[in-house]
Amino acid sequence: MPTRPDLRNVAIVAHVDHGKTTLVDAMLWQSGAFSERDTVEKTGERVMDSGDLEREKGITILAKNTAVHYRGPAAQALGLEDGVTINVIDTPGHADFGGEVERGLSMVDGVVLMVDASEGPLPQTRFVLRKALQAHLPVIVVVNKVDRPDSRIDEVVSETTDLLLSLGEDLMNEGIDIDVDSLMDVPVVYASAKAGKCSLDNPGDGQLPTEDLEPLFETILNRIPGPSFDEDMPLQAHVTNLDASPFLGRLALLRIHNGTLKKGADVGLARHDGTIQRVHISELLATEGLERVSTESAAPGDIVAVAGIEDIMIGESLVDLEDPRPLPLITVDDPAISMTIGINTSPMAGRVKGAKVTARQVKDRLDRELIGNVSLKVLPTERPDAWEVQGRGELALAILVEQMRREGYELQVGKPEVVYKTINGQLCEPIENLTVEVPQEYMGAVMEGLGMRKAELSNMEETAGYMRLEFTIPARGLIGFRSELLTSTKGNGIMNHVFHGYAPYKGDIPGRTRGSLVAFEQGETTGYGIYTLQDRGTMFISPGEQVYEGMIVGENSRENDIDINPCKKKNVSNMRTSSSDEAIRLTPPRILSLEQAIEYINNDELVEVTPQNIRLRKSILDRTVRGRAAKNARK
User: Under a CB-based contact definition with an 8 Å cutoff, are residues 12 and 114 in contact?
Assistant: First the structure.
């Protein structure tokens, strides 16, 4: 089959924070994508992380593409005087956004796997690499951050090679044909993406490579093939992502596999249900650097955006009307975690001006999310104003709630639960591979906590003064564990996890060991009221805040819930006391982020999310009704 020598489609995959987006930045700068007047201060660091949440959290959430036009020595050596266009897909490293990774890999002909020179391969490295090998994509290994003082380059290269071979063996056992010789011959590039330097030779632990990114560009051109196509085949283009433009409406991002797509042409849209619909391409956009520019036609291998098709969906195909040959649908892993999202029913609902509070508005927003998020599912519940939202993990669902909060929605969010399956008549639950890195002195406390959560230790090793512990653990056991880990290790613990598979139900896991302090009166909190209560536990509120009956205002130091009154005022009298003039000293409240609040709540509690506040509350606000329900549950 013929190939296009002037084009390379490559995805950059890695674990969280191993430098993918930083490397794309450096490739754009060194290929001349920015003008001479541009500076890092003007463009910002990590230009591919365009979302507010991505910049705040320092993670990639959505897979994005850019085009690097390379005209360097490696292109000239191949006789390509006009250079080579390298379409780069920057993918998320977090397994919760695995649907984005799978979608990104369907667009490319090879992957660049980045591994931290100190941390080595971690769970998400295994996850994204497995997906690449399943798709039979050639791999280039980039050992990044080689200038870290604690780098251990040779060991990391050895660990990565072992990972490649073990994944190859696993896939062969599953009946997937893998070329083992190519896995033994994977090229390794040593880089510091932040400095924009790399080399093909090991610079030594903690040392900076001396060359620019030329060795990486050369390796991509020589090791990753150009897109192949069949000259006799009609048009076949796969829709892999959706975007929107204020001028053009919905945009569909697609990879052309065969044939040519022309602006103004009428083509067939192969729908999910098997029907072919006639559609018109009103605009065709190619990517140059970070910009989309209008073009007249696109050839096989090109990644372009089309406008003019209002109801196009991810996974559908554009085909020739006279000879339609649809491409297979994109498949993604099933969701493992579910969470109930409903409208805000608290006494303080609707107090934020312009907030979106109705069931219709919330449902419309969830339906819009389904259009672009292939790994999400929304199911109805018994209540017409609440829905069960299923996703890959807690973080993915928390990001969705945070995005809706910033868009002005008021919501109520329930405790995350796992999605069970019945396999061969047996109840099974999702199991995760968990990696924890902790200082040695905290190892005992962490292992004890994980033992109670039904975790099983599979490996243990020491790296740079830290113990790296690997477990298999039910996904239920991870809910709420992150905050417990930070507490038991005084902030020194690092955890990463990735989906492993389904296994028989492991039994009950104990929940939160401390109860809640619940307000039984509506009003404004006072310093005196909080002062008299702070010995009972940790407070979540400050003086002067509005509370309502059933709102959780603190954590009890014991395991039972207590109804309290933080609005209590000091009685005024004309009697003098020795303590009357003493200033009260309040302990600062514990402020929970959205993710921490979702992890913290019990089954009978909810998180109230508004554009301005995050509050915790009981599902049943009335304490009399709540007490009666608890008594019935104990029976």
Answer: yes
